[in-house]
Amino acid sequence: EVFREGALQKIAVEQSAAEASALGERERAEREAAKEAAAKAQDQAVATLGSGLKRLSAGDLTVRIDTVFEGSLDNLRSDFNASVEKLGATMQQLRDEISGIQASSNEMRSAADDLSRRTEQQAASLEETSAALEEITVTVRASSAKADEASDVAQTARKGTDQSSKVVSAAIAAMGSIEEASN
Length: 183
Prior knowledge:
- The protein is built from 3 helices and no strands.
- The chain has helices spanning 2-57, 73-149, 152-182.
- Helix 1 (2-57) runs parallel beside helix 2 (73-149) and helix 2 (73-149) packs antiparallel against helix 3 (152-182).
- With 183 residues, it is mainly α.
């Protein structure tokens, strides 16, 4: 009876050992499969991220990673997409700023051209004014010479002519200064 119970216990222990060994083997196979699946998912995530980075480095700001990664690797995908989106928004803002600067530059160029044109017109006008003032000066000098010949009228005319001469001289000097400044 003792031997029979010992044999039954031995058989039960061997069955338990075999079941435990089979269970351990199954668990090891499952761990290996899970480890292999995780490595495959990681390789796929790295390859997909590498492809996205390659397109981004080529200047494609529309690149997005739509494939969902396994586990915590999906945070990497979300961060990549958010970074590309921010970069795209920054580049758009930069384009808008450049367009504004270009428009301002065009306005400044137009204003400078207009100012140059007006300066040239003023210079021509100043030359004409200077010539007219020269003619006036010659006329005033002639009038001054004739004024000396008349007696009563000459005295009044002389005072007026002297004052006109001073004004004209000041005007000539001022026009000369303006002409020098415009030149």
